Amino acid sequence: MTDHDALSGANEPGRPHETPGLWVRARVERPRRHKDGLVLELRPVDPGRTGRLNAFLSGDFIRQIQDVTGVLLDPSRIFGEHQLKLAVTAEPQGDLSAQVVGFVRDAFLPGWAEQDVAVRDAMEADRLWDRQHHLSIPRRLRRVFLVEPADRAPHPLGDELGRWWDQGAIELIRHAVAFEQPGSVAALHEAIGSAHDQHEWGSLDLVIVEPGAGFAFRALSDDGLLRQVAVLPVPVITRRATSPVLLDSMAWRCFDRPDEILAFLADILRDELRLADRPRLDAIAELIEAAPAANVTANPPPFARGPLFD
Questions:
Q1: Whole-angstrom distance, CA of residue 116 vs CA of residue 128
Q2: Which residue from 98, 59, 106 is spatially nearest to 81, judged by alpha carbons?
C-alpha cells in the first residue's frame, strides 16, 4: 500500500487533486458504519511502513458488490488483507480522502468456504444435515408455502403457481423476501418460522424457496436458517441459486429451472388423482346429477334398528 506521505506528495498547490483508480493491497482494520456506507481504516501490508488512510465505501457501491458477487458486506467481517481500488483526493491543506471504487472478490472466497465447511460439519454432528433427505414424497399437494423474491419482477414459478391457486387446484401461501438486501437473513428466518407455524396450527404439504435471478444469496448458507429448515417436518425444495449456497445441498430436493419444479408438482397432483379413484368419483357425480328429486311429502320408510357397519 502507498503510505500517507507518498500520496500527499501528489498534491498540486492550491487545488484538490484526484488520482485515477489506484489498486492497492492493504490491511483493513476497524471497519465501521457511516451513513449507509462503511469507513475502512487501511494500513500497509508491509510492517516496515507506517502510513494510514481512511477510505469510504459508499452504500451504492456496497449494493453493487452485493448484486454482482453475492458478498453480504458485514463490517465485522471486512478485515485483514484485501486488494482495493481507490479514488484518492488530495486537499490543498495536505489531507487525503479516498473512496473505494473496486474490490477483489477472491479475498472473500476462502472465508466463505471455511464458513460453509464449519456449518455443515456442525449440522452433521447434530444429525441435522440429512434430516430433510429422509422425508417422504408428499402424497398430496393441498397447501404450498412459497418463499419468493420481493422485487416485483415476473417469475415463472410464482406466476404459474398463482394460476393454480386461482383455479382452485392448490392453496398457495406466498412470502416475499428481499434476498439481496441487508436484513435478508432475518427475513428468511421469519419466512421459515411462518412455515413452521402453518404446519403446527393448520396443514402444510410443501415449502418452495425460489431465490430469483440475482446473485447475492449468502443468506441461504446461514447456519440458523439451515437448522430451521432441517427440522421442518415437510419437504423443502429449492431452485438452485446462481452462486453456490448450502441450502441447495441440505434441502429435500433442488432443481435447476422453474419448469422442473412445476413438472415435479404436477406429478404429485397426478398421483393424487390416481389415488382418489377418479373414475369412481366421476360416476358418483353423474349419479347424483341424474338422481330424481326427493318427494318430501312421501312417508319415509320405517327405521329398522340394528348394528352399524362401515
A1: 15
A2: 106
CA distance 70 to 162: 29
**Which backbone phi and psi does 275 adopt, to 5 degrees?**
-70, -25
Cell of 308: 352399524
Q: How far apart are CA 210 and CA 192, in angstroms?
A: 13
Q: Are 100 and 26 in contact (CB under 8 A)?
A: no
Tens of pLDDT, residues 25-58 = 888 887 777 777 888 888 888 877 777 888 888 8
In Å, the largest CA–CA distance within the chain is 115
Sequence letter at residue 207: V
- Tracing cell 441487508 back to the chain, one arrives at 182
Cα distance between the two ends of the chain? 85
Query: How far apart are the C-alpha atoms of 101 and 95, rounded to whole Å?
Result: 19
Coil, helix or strand at residue 125? helix
The 10s digit of each residue's pLDDT in 220-250 is: 888 999 999 999 999 999 998 777 789 999 9
Q: Which residues, 6+ apart, have CB-to-CB distance to 179 below 8 Å?
A: 149, 188, 211, 212, 214, 216, 217, 219, 220
